[in-house]
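ARCHIVE CARD
Drawer: 12
Card no.: 0347
Subject: one protein chain, sequence and derived structure
Cross-reference: see card 0346
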Amino acid sequence: MTFQSLLVGYPVWFWALLTLPLLLNFFAIAHAYYRQFPSIQEKMVWLCVVVFVPVLGGVAYFIVGRKRGKKFV
């Protein structure tokens, strides 16, 4: 089985469904990294949650943690 036949065997929506959680996590990591939180420990906790609990951590960050981080001035 070649890589080409693996890609052709699945519909586009399947690949989109697989890449959506990855993009969500990458965006959550970048967003948390470039924001200022009330404490450095909170920032590290959010980064660890997003990295070590991939799908649920990214969703939790966008529901709860995204509003806690402020832009650097």
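Annotation on reverse: The two ends are 52 Å apart (CA to CA). The mean pLDDT is 87.
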